[in-house]
Design goal:
Distance between the termini: 39 Å
Number of helices: 0
Shape: elongated
Radius of gyration: 19 Å
């Protein structure tokens, strides 16, 4: 998010202001920081948008190991791709269930990518695995 900062002088009163410029598409979720091997997790995701028209979008969920290689086949990731529709003044909520392999050690990353036409937002989080 970019910010435009400014200062206005009104008589002898100093006023500051900030105008936030936001993307019309934003992914919001709270992933875990740590998971145990064998743990199942339901990642809740909300797509916030300021798109006035009704359009179809795509939301993908990917898992990568520490070497940045796709690990979707190793982790149980049942719904890696979903469609959504932008409806004015309504956010889209969904969830992605996944399970860490029982013998997995180290960290892994999850990545969410949302696209509506030429508008795109993505987030990537690192998650550590704890010893059993």
């Amino acid at each position: 998010m970019k910010r435009l900062m400014g200062l206005i002088i009104l008589g002898s009163i100093w006023c500051s202001f900030a105008i936030a410029q936001t993307s019309p598409l934003h992914i919001k979720c709270t992933p875990p920081k740590n998971l145990k091997p064998g743990a199942a997790f339901l990642l809740k995701v909300e797509i916030q948008h300021q798109i006035a028209e009704e359009k179809t979008g795509e939301l993908s969920f990917s898992i990568f190991n520490a070497s940045k290689n796709a690990a979707d086949g190793w982790f149980l990731n049942f719904f890696p791709f979903q469609y959504f529709t932008t409806i004015q003044n309504e956010n889209y909520t969904t969830s992605f269930p996944f399970t860490v392999p029982h013998d997995y050690k180290g960290s892994f990353a999850i990545e969410l990518v949302a696209k509506v036409g030429n508008i795109k937002d993505s987030v990537r989080y690192s998650i550590n695995t704890l010893n059993k």
